[in-house]
Here is the input.
Amino acid sequence: MACSANKAPAVLVIGRSTINGVVVSRIVERAGLRARTALPELAAHVLETDLPSIVILDLPADDPAGSALFERLGAQRATHDRALPGVILLSATTDPTQVPTGAPVVDIVVARPITVDRLQPAIEAVRARNGDYG
Here is the structure.
């Protein structure tokens, strides 16, 4: 689903760190997309109202909100023919055995530290898979 200029942001950044949210949002904007940040506890509501095309999760593996968010994202993706939103997980590792439960909804894992060189190619890969909706 394309996001028009008047609609919600194309990318939703979910995390607890305000600083990381700003850094990730700037990288998203550098890729030519609009970004919005949300705390994990508010993310379910934002997912329903904004219908983002990409979600970037900045949560530790043991975050209690993580499993509920993975379930919500899985349900949302199941109703869309292109499996939207695309999901990028920011993690301490890219080791698949260390990815949190619910990871089947994750398209790409990007290892920390968060840098333009790591995150922007992941955003572009998800855009290429789902089409251009910026």
Remarks:
- Residues 39 and 55 are 13 Å apart (CA to CA).
- The radius of gyration is 13 Å.
